[in-house]
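Hello,

I think I submitted the nicotinamide-adenine-dinucleotide job twice by accident. Can you confirm which output corresponds to this input? Input:
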Amino acid sequence: MDIDEARAIERAAELVRQSWKIVVFTGAGVSTESGIPDFRSPGGIWDRYQPVEFGEFVASRKARERYWIRSRETYPTLAQAQPNPAHLAIARLEQMGKLDRVITQNVDGLHQKAGNSPGRVIELHGNTHWVICLNCNHRSPRDRWQPILESGVAVPECPDCGGILKVSTVSFGEAMPEWETREAERCSRGCDLFIAVGSSLVVYPAAQMPAYAAGAGARLIVVNMTPTYIDEHADVVIRQKAGVALAEILKRVEQG
Ligand code: NAD
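Support: Only one job matched these inputs. Its output is below.
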C-alpha cells in the first residue's frame, strides 16, 4: 500500500467513525474475490455469454435455450461461492450499529451469507437462488432445477401451469422491482455516508444512487478498481481490491 492509499484508507476510516447511518452500495466487483466474475472486466461474464434481453426471452424458445445454458453453466459457481473479507467487513458495520442498508446490484446472496440481516439488504436486480413462473408466480428454489438441466432438459417449464420459468433476477429490458428501487432511493437520500463498492456505475437506475446521496449532503467513498463517473464528487476514492480496502478500513475503525 503506498502513502496516498494509506491516507485514503485512514480518511475513509475517519468518515466511518463519524457516521451512524451508512449505506453501502455494491456491484459485481465486491464478489470477484469470492470467485464470481463481474460483467465488464476482462474474463468477465460478457466475454463468454451474450446477454439475453427480456423481450427475446419471452418471445423465443431459442433465446430461452441460450439463457438456460448460461444459467446451467454459471449457477454452480454462484451456489458454492463464499463471502470474502469485503462482505464480512460490511456485515461488521451492521454489528456495530452503523449500517442503515446494503443496496446491492448483485444476485448472489453473499451479503446475507456474510451475516447481514435480510431486512437490511435491498436487492435491486433480484436473487439467483430462486426461479419464478412468469405466468402464475410459482416460486421454487434454483437448486431444484440444476439436476433437471444437467439431465438434458433445455428449457424447464412451470410444474403448476406449464408457463415460462425464469431465474428471479432482472434481465436487460425487464422492469426493475418497484418497492426495492423506491426504497434504495429513499435510503440513499437519507444516509450520512454512502460507500460505493465494486461497481462500474453504468447500469441505471442503480448507478443513480450515489448521486442521490451526494446531492442530499452525504459523504461519499468509492472503492473500485477502475474509474467511475462519481469519483470527482467523492470525499475519498480508493483504487484497491474491495476485500483489502474494506478489511483495512474496518480494522482502523475498530482500533478507534
Ligand atoms: P460491473 O461488472 O459493471 O463492474 C464491476 C466493477 O468492479 C468494475 O468497475 C471493476 O473494475 C470493479 N472490480 C472488479 N473486481 C473488483 C475488486 N476485487 N475490488 C474492487 N473493484 C473491483 O458490475 P456492476 O456494476 O455490478 O453491474 C453489472 C450487473 O451485473 C449488475 O447489475 C449485477 O446485477 C450483475 N452481476 C452480478 C454478479 C453477482 O451477483 N456477483 C456478477 C456479475 C454481474
